[in-house]
């Protein structure tokens, strides 16, 4: 396997739609007129204004879709970095299909549509269901001994994510959530967090699914080894994505980019989805204002990524699952924010006296 320099350009040109200034101004003005003291709904006001700007309408609606990308990882098979076996990735896809996973129950409750993507699940454990979108690649290679993906695999995954965002826009979706399932994927996510922020990788390693002290030490060693192996050769965010990423992370990177291209809002979940979004922002910096941090995960790399992206999480509930579960939970708050923004009367309409 080659560790030669990355051949592809670091920053392909991806046109990101700017926020809609007119909708932003109109939504801000509306908030000032609603029958409450200015600012009294706190972050709910900001959320409605943000969604107005992101979706280009003064009275925005949350029409959500969750794309769950799944992949297996050579680093999980070969370096024992997870508390669970790789077979769980495909088994959880089957659980999602049955509507019985955490994210699927939460998504049903907030009325979000779901799309499942196979971005490299082991062929012997992936469900045969025809509704699953298939990128057509296998599990990533062990990032501790060589590049995780080939350039062609990265391109196929990123294109798949961008296409799913385009389809969502055509279907009238306004808010996209990227979720993931991939045993071992906190390891690539932590590598990417270190690479993008310049922080020490070992210090960003967390327990993921709950590895013991020995597993944690092994994970730190693996992350340190991977960063040392690839650092001298990696050029730009796409180079890092190829070397230390994974299929589901590349799909979610493309999904976030696609949200930017098609004028959708994008809600980041935990450490893996946020690492993917951070790669997308490194490729296309104009994407950042379209992102919302749904929640804060206790994985150390997550806080560092959010700080790097200057994103303030909506929720801090100690959730450390992934799947998109934290972002979907935040959709409930976003929906309430929009309900108040749209449904409240103005002072004039309600016949309520304004400030002295
Ligand atoms: C049953 C089960 C359901 C999950 N749903 C999400 N994850 C989460 O855990 C994995 C990452 O943690 P690590 O790097 O430690 O393997 C990913 O699949 C992530 O989505 C799950 C993990 C398990 C075991
Ligand atoms: O932050 C997350 O999303 C996360 C944390 C642990 C395991 N899987 C996902």
From TrEMBL:
SUPFAM superfamilies: Nicotinate mononucleotide:5,6-dimethylbenzimidazole phosphoribosyltransferase (CobT). It catalyses: 5,6-dimethylbenzimidazole + nicotinate beta-D-ribonucleotide = alpha-ribazole 5'-phosphate + nicotinate + H(+). It comes from the Bacteria. GO terms for molecular function: nicotinate-nucleotide-dimethylbenzimidazole phosphoribosyltransferase activity. Pathway: Nucleoside biosynthesis; alpha-ribazole biosynthesis; alpha-ribazole from 5,6-dimethylbenzimidazole: step 1/2. Pfam families: DBI_PRT. Its EC number is 2.4.2.21. The active site is at 323 (proton acceptor). Keywords: Cobalamin biosynthesis, Glycosyltransferase, Transferase. Belongs to the CobT family. NCBIfam families: cobT_DBIPRT, PRK00105.1. PANTHER family: NICOTINATE-NUCLEOTIDE--DIMETHYLBENZIMIDAZOLE PHOSPHORIBOSYLTRANSFERASE. Catalyzes the synthesis of alpha-ribazole-5'-phosphate from nicotinate mononucleotide (NAMN) and 5,6-dimethylbenzimidazole (DMB). This is Nicotinate-nucleotide--dimethylbenzimidazole phosphoribosyltransferase. The gene is cobT.
